[in-house]
Amino acid sequence: MYFPIQKTLEKYLNIGFAKGDTGNDLNQKHVVNFSYLLFFASCLVLLLFFSFISQPILAVFCFIWMLMGGVAWRYCYKGEFTRAQITFPILKSSKVLILCLFFFGEETGFHWLFANIIVYAVVVFRGDQKVIKYGILFSSSLGFLVCEFFSQSSLALTEVGKSLCIFFVFFKLTFHFTTVITLVMSRLNAVNLYLRNLAEKDELTGLYNRRKVLAEAQNIFEASVLNSTPCIFAIIDLDYFKKVNDTYGHDAGDLVLAKAASIMKSALRPQDLIGRYGGEEFIVIMRNIHIEQSVILMNKMRESIKNSQISLRDDTEISISLSIGLASMDSSTSRYEEVLVKADKALYLAKHNGRNCVYTEMDSLL
Ligand SMILES: Nc1nc2c(ncn2[C@@H]2O[C@H](COP(=O)(O)OP(=O)(O)OP(=O)(O)O)[C@@H](O)[C@H]2O)c(=O)[nH]1
Q1: 280 lines ligand 1 (CB under 6 A)
Q2: What ipTM score was computed for the predicted complex, to two decimals?
Q3: E.C. number, please (predicted)?
């Protein structure tokens, strides 16, 4: 039951923009769509209410507001967002003003619904729409005062009706405020996640980028020192990668890099971390593993790359290989950079000794 409702709500809130859209004005769009949705629902409730208590003129008014709301909401569909933004407060103000002045009266608190318009204006209008925003803030405040001082008494309502109206206003204000805050917060969270991905992920391979992997290296290194657990760093370099670029083009080189990254990642244990160090170089950080086991793991990764045929866009299949240098931290290591330097030396040996192989820091001491 919950999911269809959520799905439908999301569908209506996302009207007028594509999924995955990351523009700055998305929370404004959500709030505009939500406001129209709520406006539509409240007009419908009032339409039924006025029909029920035989107030045909007010029922017709509600019907007209519903229609106009529907037309204005369509502006979002058609990409005329500014029109939709501006029409909502006009419709809503006219509704609150007319119903308060001529039916509900100020003692039901109906005119407090101007607060919804004020919240809407603050959230929805951008910095370059200051004139419209302050115009709406001013006219809503004025509308509130007019209702407060010039409303007729709500003669048509019984005491119970007045109480119900006060409850309706309270519920609507609370629901509107909390939903707008939730929409803005969830949007901020989504933007935050998006920016964090941009800052931490390498676009081509989808792996962590150099900044993130080195930050993690620092954290993992410190935790290993603190807990006296083993930790191995590997530097991995694709062999003769320049040749791939020179023979098949830079785009093909990009494709090979992305596919190689995905094969490497799938060869690792869940607790291992891999990131792109730069160009065709990668770093792997392995926790709670000894050097002998890490050599086995890295050889498995090397073989899975060697045995994979990578298909290029023109269906040409090529195979590539990796050279890997490994180093572990020990009691004499005080900074993670020292482990990286040792892994780099081991990588140099692997390259020097024919490539497509794994070397450790111990080999470079021989
Ligand atoms: N397509 C593509 N190429 C890149 C990227 N980053 C670095 N390269 C290329 O990677 C190549 C690295 O070349 P070299 O450093 O000579 O290394 P290599 O050809 O792999 O030779 P060895 O490492 O000695 O086996 C250069 O041609 C770079 O232009 C990238 O993001 N995309």
Answers
A1: yes
A2: 0.97
A3: 2.7.7.65
Give 236 Cα–ligand 1 centroid separation in angstroms.
13
| CB of 352 sitting under 6 A from ligand 1 | no
Using the atom order of ligand 1, give the atom closest to the CA of residue 256.
1
pTM: 0.70
The 8-class DSSP code of residue 104 comes to I
Helices (H), the chain: 2-13, 26-52, 56-77, 81-99, 114-124, 130-150, 159-200, 210-227, 241-248, 250-266, 291-306, 336-352, 361-365
Q: Is the CB of 244 under 6 A from ligand 1?
A: no
Residues 108 and 164: their CA atoms lie apart, in Å, by 9
Pocket residue to mutate for ligand 1, from 238, 241, 312, most atoms within 8 A of Cβ: 241
Q: Which atom of ligand 1 is nearest to the CA of 241?
A: 20
Q: How far is the CA of 353 from the centre of ligand 1 (A)?
A: 19
Backbone torsion region of residue 151, taken as left when φ is above 0, otherwise alpha when ψ lies between -120 and 50, otherwise beta: beta
Closest atom of ligand 1 relative to the 204 alpha carbon: 31
Report how far Cα 151 is from the mean position of its chain's Cα atoms: 46
Task: Decide whether any atom of ligand 1 lies within 6 Å of the 254 Cβ.
Answer: yes
